[in-house]
Amino acid sequence: MIKLGLIGAGRIGTLHARNIGNNNKCKLIFIYDTDNERANKVAGLYGSHVADTPENLINNSDIDAVLICSPTDTHIDMINLTAEAGKPIFCEKPIDLDIDRVFACIEKLQKNPVPFTIGFHRRFDLHHRALRDTIFNNSIGNVEQIRISSRDPAPPP
Question: Where is each Gfo/Idh/MocA-like oxidoreductase N-terminal domain found (predicted)?
């Protein structure tokens, strides 16, 4: 059983909490959000505890990995804290809006190597994977440019 901590209980954090709750291989142990009422609401749905600070969540020995679903401007700080704690990280996109800060974050991750992934779900989308495979199989010839418009069918509940 993988024990997870969730930072950010907004729209996407709540969606991830639901998915974790539906997976019998992991459990949502702690949730942190700057809006304590929102954190308590999500925690109540999944039998989780509310952390009073992100540091307390990240450094808790019961947490195996951390999902970062907080606002973009907090991602790098949360990534750095989690990497320093030696815990695997799933972070919602983007890492940051400033490319220099992103490169500095990558350097930090290289100094504190932990499993790390960005939540860009399109890489797992069946249609995108089929397009990728078609291109790499050279079954449509030499592709010079692709233009894609992609939207979710509806916002998550």
Answer: 2-120
